[in-house]
């Protein structure tokens, strides 16, 4: 019955006349576009446009109007890597970038020469251009040779200059590809850019001193801009910047990340300094481990942890301890290779050393491992009620062999272990015999 009804309604339904995507009503297209990241929205609009002329109302609905930031880091790395100058050019024109985009990040656009940036020429509103092609929280790759260059015969320099020279220029932060960092041309570009910043009359947001400080330059030896937060573009002076080399406890606002080589302010991103290697990283770049030691404020970066500093973690609370505090985690199981901190031993067993330890070889077995009787299920650490020795069966057998007077209770405890040893030796013996007779044949 239900089937029949469905068939009838399909027959009587009006024939669908959609032959291209632009025949779809506006709402579904807008809805689809709302799930896309911004660069993909323009790419979708451009792709449709290449086939059909869409109504401009629909295109602008797909493209959207929030274009303060155009960051190609939002799309897949692979896609960004194949975008050409023509694509970039078309995207910038489509979103009216010269009048809208304040932050442009060409993340992963390694296939462009910069010719496509033409539509940005003379922009008076652009505040940040990141030409480094490196994604957020990523490190410059030293062997990377991008096509985009600062040779005068190429495209980027004239475009940058047209922005520098534009009246009311808003540019406050530039980031360059690392290969640009050397050479006369780059230095000339930096000089013009530094002049521009200085002419803006920039001062520290907190102390109001003029920037840059005398004799200092805006750009550090790695070609990165100083005194400026990469994210909010606010400016802070040297006093408000955490020094890279010496450790100071002074409060600072601007920090420098040793991984992404960006300066970011504390309002924009949490930064941490590793107590051991003394490098600072934004937390987004490297996860940090805080020492769980009582009253210890040490932080360790991922690398130092992997190098063996605070490498061990408590199997109960997952806490890690710096070298100064590692006496706060003394329990170790040599079978399952787990640690347990003293606090957790206290909490779980009401005793700091509740796991079993052999008095002779000092090996410790955790409860789980000792319950399954250690290695091969027979080498548990046990206490002899008669002679009070607490040891693993290896050591018990060893001591039984050397002592004049044997403790019967110890013999009993070691019994299963001895039996196992005996069986093992016999088996080995039989195998050996079989091998020898095999050789004779
Ligand atoms: Zn900031
Ligand atoms: Zn300051
Ligand atoms: Zn970073
Ligand atoms: Zn470190
Ligand atoms: Zn613990
Ligand atoms: Zn510590
Ligand atoms: Zn264990
Ligand atoms: Zn032992």
Question: Top keywords for this entry?
Answer:
single chain; 441 residues; alpha/beta; 3 domains; 4-stranded parallel sheet; 14 helices; 10% strand; elongated; disordered N terminus; binds zinc ion
Short structural summary:
The chain is of the alpha/beta class. Helix content is 34%, strand content 10%. It has three domains: 48 residues, no CATH class; 222 residues, no CATH class; 62 residues.
What's the layout of helices and strands?
Elements: H1 2-12, H2 26-34, H3 38-51, H4 56-63, E1 69-71, H5 77-82, H6 85-94, H7 97-100, E2 103-105, E3 128-130, H8 156-165, E4 173-175, H9 184-200, E5 254-256, E6 263-265, E7 271-273, E8 280-282, E9 288-290, E10 299-301, H10 302-306, E11 331-333, E12 338-340, H11 342-349, E13 356-357, E14 364-365, H12 367-371, E15 381-383, E16 390-392, H13 393-402, H14 408-440
Parallel strand pairs: 1-2, 2-3, 3-4
Antiparallel strand pairs: 5-6, 7-8, 9-10, 11-12, 13-14, 15-16
Helix pairs in contact: 2-4, 3-4, 3-6, 13-14
The structure holds zinc ion (8 copies).
One zinc ion (ZN) is lined by residues 204, 206-207, 236-237, 239-240.
């Amino acid at each position: 019955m239900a089937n029949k009804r469905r068939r009838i309604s399909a027959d009587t339904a009006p024939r669908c006349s959609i032959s291209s995507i632009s025949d779809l009503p506006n709402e579904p297209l807008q809805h689809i576009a709302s799930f896309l990241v911004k660069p993909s929205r323009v790419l979708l609009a451009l792709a449709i446009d290449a086939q059909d002329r869409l109504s401009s109302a629909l295109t602008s609905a797909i493209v959207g109007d929030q274009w303060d930031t155009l960051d190609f880091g939002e799309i897949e790395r692979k896609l960004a890597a194949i975008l050409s100058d023509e694509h970039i050019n078309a995207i910038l024109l489509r979103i009216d970038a010269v009048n809208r985009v304040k932050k442009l990040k060409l993340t992963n656009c390694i296939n462009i020469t910069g010719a496509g940036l033409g539509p940005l020429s003379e922009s008076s509103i652009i505040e940040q251009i990141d030409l480094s092609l490196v994604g957020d929280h990523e490190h410059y790759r030293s062997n990377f040779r991008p096509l985009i260059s600062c040779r005068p015969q190429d495209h980027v320099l004239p475009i940058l200059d047209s922005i520098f020279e534009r009246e009311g220029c808003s540019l406050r932060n530039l980031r360059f590809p690392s290969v640009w960092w050397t050479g006369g041309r780059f230095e000339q570009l930096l000089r013009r850019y530094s002049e521009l910043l200085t002419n803006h009359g920039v001062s520290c947001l907190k102390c109001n001193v003029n920037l840059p400080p005398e004799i200092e330059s805006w750009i550090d030896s790695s070609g990165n801009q100083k005194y400026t937060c990469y994210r909010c573009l606010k400016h802070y002076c040297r006093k408000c910047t955490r020094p890279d080399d010496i450790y100071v406890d002074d409060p600072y606002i601007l920090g420098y990340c040793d991984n992404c080589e960006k300066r970011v302010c504390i309002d924009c991103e949490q930064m941490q300094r590793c107590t051991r290697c003394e490098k600072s990283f934004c937390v987004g770049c490297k996860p940090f481990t805080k020492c769980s030691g009582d009253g210890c404020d040490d932080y360790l970066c991922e690398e130092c942890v992997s190098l063996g500093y605070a490498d061990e973690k408590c199997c109960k609370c997952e806490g890690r301890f710096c070298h100064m505090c590692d006496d706060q985690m003394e329990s170790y199981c040599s079978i399952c290779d787990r640690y347990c901190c003293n606090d957790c031993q206290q909490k779980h067993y009401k005793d700091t050393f509740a796991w079993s330890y052999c008095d002779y070889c000092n090996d410790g077995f955790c409860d789980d491992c000792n319950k399954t009787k250690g290695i091969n299920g027979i080498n548990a650490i046990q206490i002899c009620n008669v002679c009070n020795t607490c040891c693993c069966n290896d050591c018990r057998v060893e001591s039984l062999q050397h002592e004049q007077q044997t403790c019967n209770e110890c013999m009993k405890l070691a019994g299963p272990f001895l039996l196992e040893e005996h069986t093992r030796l016999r088996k080995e013996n039989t195998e050996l015999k079989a091998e020898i007779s095999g050789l004779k044949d």
